[in-house]
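Human: We require from you a protein record containing the residue sequence and its fold in token form, and nothing else.

Assistant:
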Amino acid sequence: MYFESEKSLIDYMKDKPDLNCLVIENSPLTSLPDLPDTVCYVKVKNCIGLSRFPVLPNSVYYLEVEDCHGLTDFQNLPTMLTDLRITNCSSLINLPPALTGMVTHVKFTSCPLLRSIPTLSDTLINLWVCDCGGLTNFPTLPSTLIYLRVFGCHGLTDLPALPNKLAYLVVNNSGVTSLPAFPESLLDLVVHKCRGLRSCPTVPSSVVYADISECPALENVPVMPNSAGKAN
């Protein structure tokens, strides 16, 4: 919905005492008011002047922020949050130090100034980090993680140890120079256009699809399991 001012948003929320889903799009807001603790779904898109989020109520389990170029940080992330998606927030620098609670899905896309990823919840299943060139390191990956996708992170030179449940790994067009050992749980593996990558661990027999390609500095081309894919 379009809101012309913070007051119009406040009036809208007053008229809906049981509000649980809040979508704000294409609005000239510079800040958001405090949200009621009935709200559990928040999506904010293309509010380019928005520079500040309030302290979000712990009732919020889904948070998506897209094309908010004035936003530099968040005051908090709700304890009930399960799904966090932040896309094309070009001024975002900092996030709270930890994702706590029940977070299972996290996606950071096109946040070039983002300096670090919070400590990850031990419930996380899916982590997607794309075109975040300011990142230089990752936190420890939780044992619950199954999907890890890293694209266009040119400042990232290595990854932490991969958890034993990880099944899908994509590392594409990033600055990694080496990769940690692949777990025996791995099914799909793509390593592509990592031009500084010099070494790659053994590909486990569990892998059913693999593509390791366009990594010209790679010194040891790993042997692939039968029918798994290609390395060149």
Summary: The two ends are 49 Å apart (CA to CA). The mean pLDDT is 92. Residues 6-14 form the longest helix (9 residues). The helical segments are 6-14.
